Amino acid sequence: MKEKEKLEQKVMAPKQKKDKAEVQKPAGSQPPKQVKPIEIHGDTISVKDLAMKMNKSAGELIKKLMGLGVMATINQEVDVETAEILANEFGFEVDIKVDESTYDFIEEIEDDPADLVPRPCVVTVMGHVDHGKTSLLDAIRESNVTASEAGGITQHIGAYQVVHDGKKITFLDTPGHEAFTAMRARGAQVTDIAILVVAADDGVMPQTVEAINHSKAAEVPIIVAINKIDKPDARPERVMQELTEHGLVPEEWGGDTICVPVSAKTREGLENLLEMILLVAEVQELKANPKRLAKGTVIEAELDKGRGPVATVLVQTGTLKIGDSIVAGTAHGKVRAMIDDKGRRVKKAGPSTPVEVLGLSDVPQAGDIFHAVKDDKTAKTISEKRLAKKREEELKATTKVSLDDLFKQIQEGNVKELNIIIKADVQGSIEALKQSLMKLSTDEVRVNAIHGGVGAITETDIMLASASNAIVIGFNVRPDANARKAAETEKVDIRLYRVIYNAIEDVKAAMQGLLDPEFKEVIIGRLEVRAIFKVSKVGTIAGCYVAEGKITRNAQVRVIRDNIVIHEGNLGSLKRFKDDVKEVSEGYECGIMIENYNDIQEGDVIEAFIMEEVTREL
Ligand SMILES: Nc1nc2c(ncn2[C@@H]2O[C@H](COP(=O)(O)OP(=O)(O)OP(=O)(O)O)[C@@H](O)[C@H]2O)c(=O)[nH]1
């Protein structure tokens, strides 16, 4: 194949998407394949468009369609399966561009390697509370303000750039791994390097460990800034020792973790830190194509009373220009104005540049991907399609990995690694659980404990689980209210245990597809027995009044006499007058029979309940 053709094919059919198309191909005999692929976006294509793609007349297609028993007009849409059969008839191969994500309907541009040029690295600062993240970010920013920009530093746009040794570095201004992981959960990968701030007088603390694990899960390299070295009780060596316990071995001790002692207060070591950032960035060989339409991520966004929706975006590739039509998540618009981190109006923004963008129709969410597209109409159409799809997906509520369907997902090849987050009341339990769970790894599935921490399950744990497709195991701890809510929206599986053995057995069973669903009893109604009818050969029928709730035909019942449960069993029949019914509501009367039980009496109370599948609590 000629080079150009090869490249063309690569551009037209990125690998991942091609696999998807192949899966969807109808089985059975296929006509001989032609090299020429055509793309179909979405679920349907019009006869006219399909004809154009194949350079055929619509008439030819309509004739073929008639031969296949499909009566179609030139503007009619045909589904992809039909399009595929048609295309094959004409000797074409269809590449169906379907992306499962909500944030799609955009054709990804594949860059010509010749267009790629080095871009600044993007840095996020993480660390334990009060270890000096904000102080460090401020110190770096202030140290790098030139006299001419002095007024600009009050401008706060969620990210800023500094220049060191003639090279730019972009800092994201929302410190903390929470923001970082929340973005990652939305599919945005913006950080190239994580700066882990550890106070020299305090050492490695729980959130330090969280930050380490969140960075590792995202496969982002970590540079440690040992902060507050100006303090008399600073003990950098101890920090390094503690870091080693968490898998970060300092370079000085033969490892590969760069540790830089700094003080945000005296600004000592800041130059060195910037140097190290540039060093790590250089190894990463970060590149982007400034010549293409821009693509990036929304860092933060708000509705400004005077200016309308304002989004701070980080351009990751391409160049964003005034007048560009853009889509960001489900918002769209035209770039009306751009303001850089120094508060200056700019006309364009290249790779790794943060800018505030005015002109969107709506406020996008932090973590939304934005794209510049060829015109307003395209932007609007994409945002409408995304909105429709979002609504649809909200209805469907896609599920992440859960123990209940783990086996199915393993069999389908969707899961090769089972990521687990462990929260427990004491460190010892975390270690014990971690060791035992990791031992469950098989040839098919590797079990990874990606994070462990002491304390309640928090929203941050859920976001990490969502971003890493992990399940959360709580041992003697509970999720807090925010975590429960987040788990529901993010569809993260939380499992709570009081016995380590049970947790391990559950994961093991889930991996083998042997996990039994667990049920919880839900009381749906309370009935009073008001009359008894003994029918020979049939049994005892209780005439009841539904005092509370309802009773359904599939319910189970409990007979209560003087507050003592005397029988529990299935309902044999449920009737209103002579008719069998499915359900009787509060305030109505009904006749019931209980399976294999005839000893019911007037004055008994009947509790109706159903068993509902639940998150297990062992
Ligand atoms: N002596 C000294 N104090 C520092 C240094 N860096 C920060 N501090 C102080 O430590 C405290 C916490 O600093 P912040 O920058 O707010 O810490 P943070 O990590 O951003 O805290 P959160 O945003 O609350 O998580 C403040 O009182 C700072 O003045 C330092 O290098 N030396």
Automatic annotation (TrEMBL):
Predominant location: cytoplasm
Keywords: Cytoplasm, GTP-binding, Initiation factor, Nucleotide-binding, Protein biosynthesis
Residue intervals of the Tr-type G domain: 118-287
Region (G-domain) residue spans: 121-269
Coiled-coil features, chain-numbered ranges: none
Residues engaged in binding GTP: 127-134, 173-177, 227-230
MF term (GO), any: GTPase activity
Spans annotated as Disordered: 1-36
A single Gene Ontology CC term: cytosol
Cell compartment(s), UniProt: Cytoplasm
CDD domains referenced in this protein's UniProt entry, alphabetically: IF2_eIF5B, IF2_mtIF2_II, mtIF2_IVc
Top-level lineage group: Bacteria
One Pfam family named in its UniProt record: IF2_N
HAMAP family: IF_2_B
Protein role: One of the essential components for the initiation of protein synthesis. Protects formylmethionyl-tRNA from spontaneous hydrolysis and promotes its binding to the 30S ribosomal subunits. Also involved in the hydrolysis of GTP during the formation of the 70S ribosomal complex.
Membership in a protein family: Belongs to the TRAFAC class translation factor GTPase superfamily. Classic translation factor GTPase family. IF-2 subfamily.
Protein name, entry field: Translation initiation factor IF-2
Organism encoding this protein: Thermincola ferriacetica
